[in-house]
Design brief:
DNA polymerase, domain 1, Cytidine Deaminase, domain 2, five-stranded mixed sheet
Length: 197
């Protein structure tokens, strides 16, 4: 028979909001659901008042601040490096965002730029906006990153088409598109690793 100690995150959340409140929250929601809960849903639960609700809602923001270290100057050697840099920041977003990293010849990040923000399951990106960042910084290569709030990193047909369009546009200007990585809460998809670039 399982106990409350067997519930993932129970011990940690208990120290923050108390055992009864943590048990109530984790009986209804998975730990990853805490990233997307609203105040009204929390306050409606037993043992969760406005103060505890605010504490729970502050946790993802605190986590994001902890993991949002500056990326400029960091070296990228593989898709896993990119995922580790952006997984907590991007997986927690309720809407899709599209970033481009510009890199120098040694694969050190020159800049990180937000090119577009979209809806729950789509983001509209202009390849010109992505390539512009590389041209502005005289960057020889780029890595594109976007998130899937659904938690499934599988690329859509639109993701595949966008990747192809950006890669072609970059190539015309002598910029290499090294990868396009789709970030989800538990995993990622790399177009480069999959042989699609």
């Amino acid at each position: 028979m399982s106990t409350s100690k067997d519930i993932p995150g129970m011990a940690t959340l208990s120290t923050i909001i108390g055992r009864r409140a943590a048990l109530e929250v984790l009986r209804r929601y998975r730990l990853s659901d805490l990233l997307h809960l609203d105040r009204q849903s929390l306050v409606a639960m037993r043992h969760i008042g406005p103060r505890r609700a605010e504490t729970i809602l502050a946790l993802p923001k605190l986590l994001q601040q902890m993991v949002c270290e500056p990326t400029e100057g960091l070296s990228i050697s593989c898709s896993q490096d990119v995922y580790e840099l952006f997984r907590f920041r991007m997986a927690a977003l309720p809407m899709e965002q599209f970033l481009v990293l510009t890199l120098n010849t040694r694969n050190r990040i020159l800049s990180e730029d937000l090119c577009a923000a979209g809806g729950i399951n789509t983001v509209h990106v202009q390849p010109l906006e992505v390539i512009r960042q590389a041209v502005l910084r005289s960057a020889p290569s780029i890595i594109c990153i976007h998130n899937h709030p659904s938690g499934d990193p599988t690329p859509s047909p639109e993701d595949r088409l966008l990747t192809e369009r950006i890669s072609q546009a970059a190539s015309l200007l002598g910029v290499r598109m090294l990868d396009h990585i789709i970030v989800a809460s538990q995993s990622y998809y790399s177009f480069s690793d999959a042989g699609s670039l």
